[in-house]
Amino acid sequence: MTFSEPSSEQTTGLPPSGEPVFLVVGRLRRPHGVSGEILMDVITDFPERMRSGMTVYVGKNHLPLQIRKCRPHDKNLLLAFKEILDRDAVGALRNELLYVRADDIPALPEGDYYHHQILGLRVYSEDGEFLGTVVDILETGANDVCIVRPSEGSDFLMPVIDSIVLKIDLDQGEMRVRLLEGLR
């Protein structure tokens, strides 16, 4: 079981009913050249999915823009948008976050989950005892670790390994776990 992170700034929980969930994929930095390109710091684990013709959303108001051109530049990307053709206009987007819609991202193989799917899940022991809610996920290198917040008391860390995480039911918003002695 693995978790993938499309962005480091996640939306926790669900938006108001009917509204799409947006995931951060980058931060727009500075104009590049005179034809409307802008440098983007990559936040997503999947920068190769950024391509010409793709619709992305800029800033808190999620302004939709279509990518005209996308190319690598060092560890970042250079983007140009169909709607913006000059340096000054694209410069107005400096320091804005770039989003994609969660319903536009590809499905992962069975048993793999995006972070935004796990955040907010209710965690239950294998006996049905409510343990808390997943409020954050730490990437440790060896395996991810969920931070679980109980109704009362302090948060606790729960490694995401097969011997602990027994079942994830996204439809029910639940995770069943077998806690080892001393985890809480």
Strand content: 35-45%
Radius of gyration: 19 Å
Question: What share of the residues lie within helices?
Answer: under 10%
- CATH level-1 class of the largest domain: Mainly Beta
Would you report the number of β strands?
Answer: 14
The CA-CA distance between the termini, in Å, is 22 Å
Task: Supply the helix-strand structural class.
Answer: mainly beta
Q: How are the strands ordered across the major sheet?
A: 2-3-6-5-4-7
- Number of DSSP helical runs: 2
Q: Which consecutive residue ranges, at least 5 long each, have pLDDT under 50?
A: 7-16
SSE ordering: EEEEEEHEEHEEEEEE
Structure summarized in a few sentences:
The protein is mainly beta and 184 residues long. Helices cover 5% and strands 45% of the residues.
Report on the structure:
The protein is built from 2 helices and 14 strands. The protein folds into 2 domains: 2-104, Beta Barrel (Elongation Factor Tu (Ef-tu), domain 3), CATH 2.40.30; 120-177, PRC-barrel domain (SH3 type barrels, Roll). The protein is mostly beta strands and 184 residues long. Residues 7-16 have low confidence and may be disordered.
